[in-house]
Amino acid sequence: xxxxxxxxxxxxxxxxxASVLMAAAGAVFVYRDGMIDVNVQEKEAGGSYVHVMVPTxxxxxxxxxxxxxxxxxxxxxARRYWPLIEAACAGIARSPDGVLVQVDSADAHVTIEKxxxxxxxxxxxxxxxxxxxxxxxAVEFVVRRMRPSSPDWGPRATISLTEVKPDSTPARATPRA
Length: 177
What we know:
By secondary structure, the protein is of the alpha+beta class. It has 5 helices and 8 strands. The strands form 2 sheets. The chain has a 6-stranded antiparallel beta sheet. The chain has a two-stranded antiparallel ribbon with strand order 7-8. The protein is extended.
């Protein structure tokens, strides 16, 4: 085997190894990020059944590209309660597993619970049975992305490391104690 052939084979082996390692690292990241699971079963005769699983990583990537425009901003009422919404998400993330909300009526049953780092919403009514599971970290991520910060909000609000003062000179963000 010539020297040139050996070099080409070594380079090909290194590239293949690097590709396999990158694919494995990506698979581990997607696995650790979790899945959003939606199940819908209609109760009528011949009713349809829909089961969709989406990697949370895919949702994070999609949200990063959502064009946030002024008409999409939360209204003044929602902005006022946004810190409470963020605090509730953080509290749910730290809380132990268990039922958060349960509503029973004559024709419907709704349960929202935290189970193993996942928020599970079960709805059972006369027409359909629905189950949605979403990792709590994903809920926190979406809430942070939708934060109605001013002047920036959406993706810019969560990735900006500086604050803009009214005189438009950037200042370093100070860490909280």
